TrEMBL record:
This is Phosphohexomutase. It comes from the Bacteria. CDD domains: cupin_PMI_type_I_N_bac (cd07010). One of its GO terms (molecular function) is isomerase activity. Residues 245-320 form the Mannose-6-phosphate isomerase cupin domain. It comes from Flavobacterium aureirubrum. The lineage of its organism: Bacteria, Pseudomonadati, Bacteroidota, Flavobacteriia, Flavobacteriales.
Length: 322
């Protein structure tokens, strides 16, 4: 018997971080008890952090189990052909109460060689930003390993890095090798390749509750850094009830949908689609059923669901692999 799939939500995987806070609870309504919750992993298949379905008759099943049973129906014919039974993306919300470490991620080639992992191309959508909140993205001017090391050793690295003041709705696309940090006072929706490989190069000399500093990865980072200047901020349209492209790269396509009323979605079965609700409330109408979501919710629409309707008043990120 063919299983009738439906829009899937997953239990959030919550991560305490030295820089985390309470906005995932106060702003996104996540059930957190810690005052240091930095991340909510919404859809993940990282080892030891695999998402579990929280709605419908598949409740309690892991995403990996579903993909193993129904690879093309979940992932899509094209995604399955490219990635096998691997879910290629990771979706998160982040709350930076303090500055994150200055870090970067290796490309696919280095990540495969060193860690047997994908690289980590990622994008950020700023959901909320305090006054004067900033991001660090890349170098102010073209740098070099020698120049970079000089500033790192003299604790003047910040002087050569580019900072951007941010507001709600700003989007940044970070290719691998881009040195970066999320600044204090920002809530972000993050879309990335499935990878947990991060090279931390400077952590503001912070210590944890036990007086320990966090591990740095400066030797690994040297070969992985892109020393050129990069243009990371994305400008995009906001046409109501339409999919406005923000990012279209080999790893994912992300569109912005300002939903005001309803929008019919008709697509092929090449790829799954994910919706991240970054503002408001919306519904998915499929197969005579209504599925309701609010700000901070993330939903995976299996690839086999090719015709459905979005309705409500919301700002949505729509993500798939093209």
């Amino acid at each position: 018997m063919k299983m009738k799939l439906y829009p899937l939500q997953f239990e959030p995987i919550l991560k305490e971080r030295i820089w985390g806070g309470t906005k995932l609870k106060s702003y996104l309504n996540k059930s957190i008890s810690s005052d240091l919750t930095g991340e909510s992993w919404e859809i993940a298949t990282v080892e030891n952090d695999v998402s579990i379905v929280k709605n419908g008759f598949l409740k309690g099943k892991s995403l990996n189990d579903l993909i193993n049973e129904l690879p093309e129906a979940i992932l899509g014919t094209k995604v399955h052909a490219q990635f096998g039974k691997q879910f290629p993306l990771l979706f998160k919300y982040l709350d930076a109460r303090e500055d994150l470490s200055i870090q970067l991620h290796p490309n696919d080639e280095l990540a495969k060689k060193r860690h047997n992992s994908f690289g980590k191309t990622e994008m950020w959508y700023v959901m909320q930003a305090d006054e004067e909140a900033r991001l660090i993205v890349g170098f102010k001017q073209k740098s070099s390993p020698k120049d970079y090391l000089h500033h790192l050793e003299n604790k003047t690295l910040l002087s050569i890095l580019d900072t951007k003041k941010v507001k709600q709705g700003d989007v940044f696309f970070l290719e691998t090798g881009t040195i970066h940090a999320i600044g204090a006072g920002i809530v972000i929706a993050e879309i990335q390749q499935t990878s947990d490989v991060t090279y931390r190069v400077y952590d503001f000399d912070r210590v944890d509750a036990h007086g320990n500093t966090r591990e740095l990865h400066n030797d690994l980072a040297l070969e992985a850094i892109n020393y050129d200047t990069v243009e990371t901020q994305k400008v995009y349209s906001r046409n109501e009830n339409h999919s406005n492209t923000i990012v279209n790269c080999p790893y994912f396509t992300t569109n912005f949908i300002p939903l005001n009323g309803s929008s019919m979605i008709s697509k092929n079965a090449d790829s799954f689609t994910v919706y991240m609700c970054v503002e408001g409330d919306f519904e998915i109408l499929y197969n005579n059923a209504i599925y309701s979501y609010s700000k901070g919710d993330t939903v995976l629409v299996p690839a086999s669901l090719t015709d459905f309707q979005l309705a409500g008043s919301a700002s949505l990120l729509e993500i798939y692999i093209s």
